[in-house]
Structures are given as structure tokens and as C-alpha cells.
Recover the amino acids of this structure.
């Protein structure tokens, strides 16, 4: 908004704000005038249309003008409740205005004077009443609370909406007309964006709905544009700053691909080609591979690691859970061992001796491919010659962990794999610093999993069905959610469920139990037994959610399915449907909330992860969608990642063109943009010495 001196004035400077009140504003993050005008409303009340009293309808909130026709009366219908009432009339009718426990009304409301009122209309029999209305005198001065679209701000106790409105209104008066526009003229022209002074005024006190829409559009555009500029800058700085490894062609590659137990799908071939090109180029690879559950991401990673190893480098793959790491280790070493590639597992649950040995061999370069968990990013892990890093199921790792692992080599290529299908536009925001490949095809012969959302009344029938499937030789997962974050409670609830399943429902079957509290060894033992077919029913928490691959398991039962997000349910369901047999997913829920049944219906209707994630995003919003903040969902003040996808696309386009014209944002017209960018992405951009 520019370098205007007034912007930096503390809120104390504003009329009506003393030390105490300033502290309250500080609590909302408002310290300066600039903060105040950048503090956007949470919602608006449309009080703009003035009605006649006879037009007022029961239940609506609206504005009307009227003259006070009586003194204010005071009654005490019960202890602690005082009612203050007055009659208000216009040419068309009379209405009673009622306030609860607001003594001051008696001294401010004057008989015979006209006011504009705004409040909720309530009809009792034939009498109309307006409850706790706000009112303003019609004396020619500006109306703040009635007769207009009124902003409602996120607040803290002790600060009323009125105080916030006044402060912002005063802050606006101070700077109005003097704000400098950060958006270059050509961008505003091309995308029809309104000017900054107009936009800021109308985001707070819109004169009409039209004005509000214009203002919001422009401010959302600006916010998303900055985000995109930041990510693009980071991405190109990453690319420019480092000379990456140039991996050569590998003659054995074709033979290796032929030796796989299956033919690659076209999608796998396409994605591996993109990876190969990255690896062979001198740019550092930063590539995200997205693919639905079961699309075969692992083998693509194996191909890339094979290439790295054959070019004389070490490769590492990091998985979020020990179960998954062990499974990857098995797959990877099976595929690679015939080709003289030395693989090693590195997880937390190893004996100190085995770990020490592994660490030494990795450092000496005796190991070509390391498969592990977070144990890989510990400080004592050193590589001889790390060239490629793969992180699996990226949504479980933070950006930082990804970075720590790649810093164990010099300018290593990086591959990030995720099974959370993210709508493409959103992926561009979350992973704006990565290139994206999508495996958009499942291996042939997969039958879609049949999914049923059920309630407790179906328990007997479903148990009979499970029994039947086990008799046919199939295996079953039963998953129950964490009741609390706490691990001990988790253990109890799964244990209880396992006991019920083992002792009561399926006494004659073999039931195994895994949860987060088990020792890795025990967990591993049970998983191995399950994979080997020695356990019929595996009861578990979501530790099996990611990646576990047991093709003979064909039934997935999820207890309390309403506690899971759709993306997570989709992950869980992805544990079945991996073989030739028809698979089933049963979602138990005892909630009769509309929203729950709507969500579970989505699961019944589609097996397409991208569709499901779009829906999840729509129903729960991006915050929920990604679970926690650490996944890097940016804090947006005004734009909404779901509703504003169209704006986002345009902002992306604009960001690219701005950088094409002026990569360092050094031109006069881009200086303000650059300043805001540095403010927003301070730490990351500094790291990359962009200033
Ligand atoms: P995800 O993408 O969920 O990580 P995986 O890599 O675990 O999927 O692969 C799922 C299963 O599909 C594995 O059993 C794997 O061996 C198998 N698979 C992978 N690619 C193919 C293919 N092209 N044809 C047949 N099966 C495949
Ligand atoms: Mg996987």
C-alpha cells in the first residue's frame, strides 16, 4: 500500500483509542494504521434497504426508519431481566422496539425524534417487535451501522463491533486517496481490477454489493498473485542457484524394465520419462509425482533409483511409517538384487549394532539404496555420494524434512510422491515450487472397490459376510479411528475393538492387532503374519492407512467412519482392491448428521481419488483437508482456495507474465509488489538471497 508515513502510525494515534483499547486491538494483530485497514471483515450484514414498517416480516433482520412515539418504559418480568420498550412508527404502521438489560436506552432514545433502526423482527400474535435494534439519528452525518452494508469483524471480547468499525473508519480517513497501488497498471487493466483506495474502502464499507464484489475480487487477486509470485520466485531461485547432477543414459534400463513382473502402464511410462529428462538435465530435479492409491508409484521410484545407482550415486527413499518402510525395503530389494544393487533398511526400531553397521556402510558407500523412515534425516546419517532422494507419501512430511534429507547430498535430485490426489490448482499452491507429474491410470484388471455406508443395524449381516469371505480364503482389515490424540487412549480403544472382534464376533478366526503403541518388532511380526495369510482379520488404527500392500485382503471395514476425512477414507479403502478378486469397503457410522451421510455417499459413488479430494475440499475446506498447518497451506486473509479457483488461475497467469517481463522485480512498477513479497516470504527468500 506504499510507504505512506500514516500507515506506520500506531493505533493509539487514532481517535477514541487509548492505551487500554490499543492493547485490545494489538490482541487482534492490529498494531498500526496499516494493520487496521488490512483487517478485513468476516462477513457483512446488508442493512442497506430501508423498509416501511408494514413491509417488515417475522424472522428477518432489516433496517427501517421511524419516529419514537412513546417514552421508554422499563419492566422487570423476572429477576435479572429488565426490558426497555418504546413504540416506533412511520406512516404505514407501528412496531415495538425492545431491548434487554440495556439501561442506557432510557437516556439516549428521545420521544419525537426519528432514527434508522436495524434489528431482528419478531412477531407475537399480531404484534410486531424488533429485538435489540441498533439505531442512529438522521442528522445528516454519515451512518455507520444502519442503512448500508455493514461489516462484521472477527473480534475479541471487550471490543465491540462498533469500536472496530470506528477505528477502521478513522484509519481509512487518514490514508484515503493516498494509498499507492502495488499492482502495475497493465495488470489492473488486463484483469479488470479496481484501484487500491476504492478497494480498501469498499471491502470495509461497501456502498453497494457491486462495489463490494469489485473490491473483494481485486484484493483476493492481489493476495493470490503474491502467493504465486513468491512460489515461482522460490522455484526459479532453486533452479538457478544450483548446478544439478547430470545423470547419464543407462543401457541396462530397458532390460530392467522388461524384467519387472508386469508391464508398466502408459501413465507410469510417461511419468518415468519426465523423471529421466529431469535427471539427465543439469537442473536440480524437484518433482512431485501424484497418483491415486494403487497406481503404482513405488515401481516408478525404483526405476529412478536404479538409474541413479547405475550412474554411480546413492539413492534414498523415505517413508512415513516403519511398516511402510519395511514393505518398500522388501519390494525394492526384490526388484534390484538381481542387478547387483545393494539395498539397506534404516529405521528407528533396529538394534544399536545393526544400526551402527548400516550407518557405516552407508557412509562408506557400500550401500546403494537406503530405505527408511525419519531415521534417515537424523544427523548421524551420512552418505558417500547421495544423488537422488525420494520421499513417499509426502503429505505426511513437512517441507523442512524434505529439505533436510536432500541436504545430505550435494544438489541432489528430488522426487516427491503423494497418494493424496490434490486438485491441480491447489497442488500448484501447495507445491508451487515443484514440477508435477500425474500417474492418471491404474494397472489393468483392477475392479473398483464396492463401498457401502452402513449403520449398526447391519452389524450381524456384515459379520456373516466377513465370515464368508474368510472362508473363501480372503483377509479383512478392521480400522478404528483415534478417539483422542493421546496414544494410550488409542491403544485402549483399538484393544477393546480387537477384543470384541476376537472374543465375540469372530471367536473361530485368527485376529491380529496393530496400533501405534506396539513395539516395532511386534508390529512387524503381525504385519508379516498378515501378509503371509496367517491372520484372517487385522484390527488396527490408521497405521495401515499409508501404502500397505496385501493383495489377498479384500474387505476393509472402517468403524466410526464419520471421524475420517474423505481423502483418508479413500486411502484406507486403497488397502483393498489390489488383487484380482472383487473387494469391499464397509463404512460404519452411527451419526445421523446430514453432512456425514452426504460425505459417505461420495465414497459409495466414486473410486476416483481426484473427484473425492475435490469433494472433500468443497465440504471441509483446505485446512481440514490437509489436517494440520505444517503442510504449508498458506494463511490467506481474503481469498478462498476453493471458491476462488478461477481467480487463482488468472493470478497464476499474471504472476508468470510479470516474472517473464521482470524476473527480479526491479522495475519501478514492480517495486511495491517486491516489497510485499519480501515481507510475506521473508525467511525463505532470504535463504535464496533474493533481495
Ligand atoms: P501406490 O501408487 O499406491 O504406492 P504401489 O506402488 O504400492 O501403489 O502399487 C500397487 C500394486 O500394484 C503393487 O502390488 C504393485 O506391484 C502393482 N503394480 C504396480 N504397477 C503395476 C503394473 N503396471 N501392472 C500391474 N501391477 C502393478
Ligand atoms: Mg505407495
Amino acid at each position: 500500500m506504499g510507504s505512506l508515513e500514516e500507515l506506520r502510525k500506531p493505533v493509539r494515534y487514532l481517535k477514541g483509542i487509548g492505551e487500554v483499547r490499543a492493547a485490545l486491538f494489538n490482541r487482534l494483530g492490529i498494531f498500526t494504521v496499516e494493520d487496521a485497514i488490512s483487517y478485513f471483515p468476516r462477513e457483512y450484514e446488508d442493512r442497506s434497504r430501508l423498509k416501511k414498517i408494514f413491509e417488515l416480516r417475522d424472522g428477518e433482520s432489516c433496517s427501517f426508519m421511524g419516529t419514537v412515539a412513546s417514552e421508554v418504559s422499563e419492566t422487570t418480568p423476572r429477576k435479572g431481566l429488565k426490558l426497555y420498550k418504546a413504540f416506533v412508527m412511520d406512516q404505514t404502521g407501528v412496531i415495538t422496539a425492545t431491548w434487554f438489560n440495556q439501561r442506557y436506552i432510557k437516556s439516549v432514545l428521545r420521544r419525537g425524534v426519528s432514527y434508522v433502526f436495524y434489528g431482528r423482527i419478531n412477531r407475537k400474535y399480531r404484534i410486531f417487535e424488533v429485538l435489540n435494534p441498533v439505531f442512529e439519528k438522521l442528522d445528516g452525518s454519515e451512518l455507520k451501522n444502519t442503512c448500508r452494508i455493514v461489516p462484521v469483524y472477527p473480534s475479541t471480547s471487550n471490543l465491540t463491533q462498533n469500536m472496530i468499525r470506528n477505528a477502521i473508519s478513522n484509519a481509512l480517513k487518514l490514508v484515503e486517496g493516498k494509498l499507492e497501488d502495488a499492482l502495475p497498471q497493465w495488470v489492473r487493466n488486463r484483469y479488470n481490477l479496481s484501484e487500491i483506495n476504492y478497494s480498501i474502502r469498499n471491502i470495509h464499507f461497501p456502498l453497494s454489493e457491486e462495489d463490494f464484489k469489485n473490491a473483494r475480487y481485486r484484493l483476493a487477486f492481489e493476495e493470490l498473485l503474491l502467493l504465486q509470485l513468491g512460489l515461482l520466485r522460490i522455484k526459479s531461485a532453486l533452479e538457478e542457484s544450483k548446478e544439478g547432477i547430470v545423470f547419464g543414459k543407462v543401457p541396462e534400463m530397458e532390460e530392467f524394465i522388461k524384467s519387472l513382473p508386469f508391464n508398466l502402464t502408459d501413465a507410469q511410462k510417461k511419468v518415468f520419462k519426465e523423471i529421466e529428462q529431469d535427471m539427465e538435465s543439469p537442473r536440480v530435479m524437484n518433482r512431485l509425482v501424484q497418483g491415486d492409491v494403487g497406481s503404482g508409484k513405488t515401481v516408478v521410484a525404483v526405476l529412478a533409483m536404479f538409474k541413479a545407482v547405475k550412474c554411480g550415486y546413492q539413492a534414498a527413499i523415505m517413508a512415513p511409517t516403519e511398516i511402510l518402510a519395511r514393505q518398500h525395503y522388501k519390494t525394492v530389494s526384490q526388484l534390484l538384487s538381481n542387478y547387483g544393487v545393494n539395498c539397506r533398511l534404516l529405521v528407528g526400531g533396529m538394534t544399536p549394532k545393526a544400526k551402527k553397521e548400516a550407518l557405516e556402510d552407508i557412509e562408506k558407500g557400500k550401500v546403494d539404496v537406503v530405505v527408511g523412515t525419519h531415521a534417515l534425516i537424523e544427523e548421524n546419517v551420512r552418505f558417500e555420494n547421495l544423488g537422488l532422494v525420494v520421499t513417499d507419501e509426502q503429505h505426511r512430511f513437512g517441507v523442512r524434512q524434505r529439505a533436510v534429507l536432500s541436504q545430505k547430498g550435494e544438489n541432489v535430485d528430488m522426487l516427491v510422491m503423494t497418494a493424496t490426489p490434490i486438485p491441480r490448482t491447489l497442488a500448484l499452491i501447495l507445491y508451487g515450487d515443484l514440477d508435477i507429474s500425474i500417474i492418471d491410470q491404474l494397472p489393468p484388471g483392477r475392479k473398483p472397490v464396492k463401498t457401502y455406508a452402513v449403520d449398526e443395524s447391519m452389524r450381524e449381516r456384515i459379520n456373516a459376510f466377513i465370515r464368508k469371505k474368510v472362508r473363501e480364503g480372503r483377509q479383512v482389515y478392521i480400522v478404528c479411528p483415534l478417539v483422542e490424540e493421546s496414544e494410550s487412549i488409542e491403544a485402549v480403544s483399538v484393544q477393546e475393538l480387537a477384543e470384541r472382534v476376537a472374543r465375540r464376533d469372530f471367536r473361530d478366526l485368527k485376529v491380529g492387532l496393530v496400533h501405534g503403541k506396539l513395539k516395532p518388532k511386534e508390529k512387524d511380526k503381525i504385519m508379516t503374519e498378515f501378509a503371509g495369510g496367517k491372520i484372517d482379520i487385522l484390527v488396527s488404527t490408521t497405521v495401515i492407512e499409508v501404502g500397505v500392500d496385501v493383495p489377498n485382503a479384500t474387505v476393509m471395514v472402517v468403524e466410526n467412519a464419520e471421524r475420517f476425512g474423505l481423502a483418508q477414507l479413500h486411502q484406507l479403502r486403497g488397502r483393498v482392491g489390489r488383487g484380482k478378486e472383487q473387494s469391499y469397503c464397509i463404512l460404519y457410522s452411527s451419526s445421523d448428521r446430514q453432512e456425514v451421510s452426504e460425505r459417505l455417499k461420495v465414497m459409495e459413488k466414486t473410486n476416483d481419488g481426484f473427484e473425492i479430494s475435490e469433494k472433500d475440499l468443497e465440504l471441509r475446506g483446505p485446512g481440514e483437508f490437509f489436517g494440520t498447518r505444517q503442510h504449508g497451506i498458506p494463511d490467506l486473509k481474503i481469498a478462498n482456495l476453493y471458491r476462488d479457483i478461477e481467480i487463482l488461475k488468472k493470478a497464476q497467469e499474471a504472476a508468470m507474465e510479470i516474472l517473464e517481463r521482470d524476473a527480479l522485480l526491479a522495475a519501478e512498477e514492480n517495486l511495491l509488489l517486491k516489497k510485499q513479497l519480501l515481507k510475506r516470504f521473508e525467511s525463505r527468500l532470504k535463504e535464496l538471497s533474493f533481495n
